[in-house]
Amino acid sequence: EYKISSFEQRLMNEIEFRLERTPVDESDDEIQHDEIPTGKCIAPIFDKRLKHFRVTEGSPVTFTCKIVGIPVPKVYWFKDGKQISKRNEHCKMQREGDGTCSLHIESTTSDDDGNYTIMAANPQGRISCSGHLMVQSLPIRSRLSTAGQSHRGRSRMQERDKEPLQERFFRPHFLQAPGDMVAHEGRLCRLDCKVSGLPPPELTWLLKGQPVLPDASHKMLVRETGVHSLLIDPLTQRDAGTYTCVATNKTGQNSFSLELTVVAKEVKKAPVILEKLQNCGVPEGHPVRLECRVIGMPPPVFFWKKDNDTIPFTRERI
Fold it and tell me: Where are the bilayer-spanning segments (predicted)?
């Protein structure tokens, strides 16, 4: 792995900008977007991006990234802006259930040197990232030595691949998830959920389709009981909206959504009498109604008095 120059970075940015705005050949993925889910659509997001590699000729290399989105995005691979077909036996492309995508070259040549780009797309949008591969040639003597070592290394890898796999995997499943919530501005808000799965899923929180990043007022916690929490303190009007929690592991992903409504902070205001009590006279034995109108925040508590003595609420006649 190595860092590329600013010129190479600008070149890759130019390729990504162009690819995200031009038509592409149909993806070789089995993913179909004929039936689009309602209420849970999320544009593709890179949970892990491609890196840049420098290798010697004949060495293997693997580009890896991780993509999440709802519906599951289609992926397209490119080299120097030209789409790579899945029928290409030299570049082997794979995709796992948790959204991890990889492009593997078993034995690199000088022709493999260049910029590799992956683009993810669903009905909500497109996103892409790139990695640069620099292939360096070796002297003839070194190439012969490396070829022998590579052959022995592959033999050992093949032996390991033949070992039986005992581990079992389970898709993420939410055991506990909150429903729509109403919370007050300026207070603490806590969204709790509990998820099962093997290997243990990773959780991503989204607000209106954008990732919620940890900062001074947003924290993600995991308790010993396995409960995941998103803590917001203090809550502001910007925190209102549709939250989606996406759980992913190598077998797949699951998600739930909820609507968070933020009640505006109360403005305190002393009681004000808008309409005062009026003097009145009635014959003895007739009913009488005395009225006034008062406003205040929070709503005031009222006390009635007659000749400066408090009138108890228990009296049935008044």
Answer: none
